[in-house]
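INFO worker-7 received task bundle
INFO bundle size: 2
INFO processing item 0
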Amino acid sequence: MNSTVPGSDDQSSGPDLFLIGKITKPHGLNGEVTLYFSSPHPVSLDGVTTLYFGRRKSPKTLRGWRVHQNRSLLQIEGVRYRDQAEALRGSDVYVDRNELGDLEEDEFYIRDLIGAEIVLEDGTLFGTLKDVVYTGANDVYVVAREEKADALLPAIHQVIKAIDLENQRITVALMPGLLPEE
């Protein structure tokens, strides 16, 4: 289940912004910058026209982007020279959710899942989704449970049975051996 796509919890007035990564360095002499995605699930920038940079989330027009040797390279309007690109080094990069393409059927933005109540298949409340951890094999949902240690649930079809964003509810099946003895 590829259920998580990056998206920060940053809420501000205006555009619905997602933190997608950070500018790591300039690339070449013509103003391109290298974007390091903050998630192992990179966001496609196809159709995106504006990116927002730094703490102030300054809008800049995206002229183009490409993948080069497993990195994303961006061309930003007004950034034509290496020294201009250098000024963006270390900047967080945000995108407006409304400019992102549609998600696949089993994909969700992490920030839409955080805080959802986790219930067992019989309707028993299990906890609340606190965080999502990225691993090489699959994502892991960190579930806060009342008066118990957090539970770690793999985001796989055998465990995550249903996600109802409208009602902020995730239905799970606990496989034998999934939880430590309590």
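INFO item 0 finished
INFO processing item 1
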Amino acid sequence: MNTTASAGYSLREAVHSEEHPWGAVRIVPLRPEEDLELVYGWVREERARFWGMLEHSREEVLEIYQFLDSLETHHAFLALLDEQPVALFQSYEPLHDPVSEAYPARAEDAGMHLLLAPASQPVPHFTPRLVSVLIRYLFADPAIDRIIVEPDARNSKAIRRLRTTCFELGPKIQLAEKEAQLAFLTRERFEKAPVV
């Protein structure tokens, strides 16, 4: 986890927050210009190769997140644990994304991407706990009844994580930049899953 928290994070209004014995989680909108150095540092690490930005310059990363920030259908956030940034989280409407050309997307679907910050001190069960918070945020919208994810099919760590959570693996699909493994999580399935 990154320990270089900016005093500005605590001043940002959260779109979702939860208090847990293991820490306070807040999801705040990403500010492309202010958060560029943090995000650029994360996406350029070899461990983030499946994020697809290893070769990008600062300017290219900034342009991508400025473009994302201009959309009504795609959103980028920082997940904070006790005001420390621990993940880059993106949500999107699959009907308004190229992924809709590869599977029968519905208006009730929400897509998500997650890039964890480098962990300086690993915390047991941190990833499933954080993912559960992010899922609860997405399902807080009553119009959403299914979450989809589409990690790179070569990302065995992400696929293993999906297998050990309540996501159900779907087909592999071809996107412009990768072969992806589709996985789905319905609201009903999530609500029946054990709480982490």
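INFO item 1 finished
INFO post-check item 1: The CA atoms of residues 63 and 82 lie 29 Å apart.
INFO post-check item 1: Residues 1-5 have pLDDT under 50 and may be disordered.
INFO worker-7 idle
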